[in-house]
Amino acid sequence: MKTIDAAEVELLDYYLSKGFVSTKNHFVMLRDLTEPIPKFPQPNNITINQWEMSDEQGQQDYLKASAHAFEGNAWSLNHLQWMRDGPGWGTFTAFNEDYIVGSVMIWEINEQRSATENIFVHSDYRKKACITETLNFLKESGKTEATLGVFADKKKAILLYQSLGYRMLKVIVELGLD
To answer: I need a labelling partner for 31 at 20 to 30 A (CA). Which of 51, 115, 144, 165 fits?
Structure first.
């Protein structure tokens, strides 16, 4: 598998000439954090915490909740632990008592920008509060931009992110050998 910015047409031509085919498209979206961030009420039984997942049981619980939300597709424990070691890493995780119902992961891209990624919410708890809480934290931390990646076929997610002020930044084409 190879991912290429859609603007790199010569490189795309090269890979296509070698037998690669497009398997997926990823939209990279940008949120200007200098713009107002909408407020959404949290349900009474939900708390959103900045959570470090400091023990392996917490990490396993996170992966289980993520797999449930992503229909069985989740990172491995090794990948999650590797991500935790990155600069500016953290999560804003929504809990119903001890049960994880959603999360937004962040990591630093540069001084102005952080990623808001691996966003999931259990279908029974779909609200916008976890994402806006994360955006407010990044804004208060001095960031001016937040980005995320979303598969191009995830129409509901794209509409949600647009409603929160994210706009298209670029398209990444995923290529693989047929």
So the answer is: 51
Q: 40-60, pLDDT tens digit by residue?
A: 887 778 899 999 999 999 999
Structural domain count, the chain: 1
Beta-carbon contacts of 30 under 8 Å, excluding residues fewer than 6 positions away, are 145, 146, 147, 166, 167, 168, 169
Tell me if 15 is assigned to some domain. no
Cα maximum dimension of the chain = 56
Q: Residue 80 is part of a domain; what is its CATH number?
A: 3.40.630.30
Q: Which two tokens stand for residue 61?
A: 């619980």
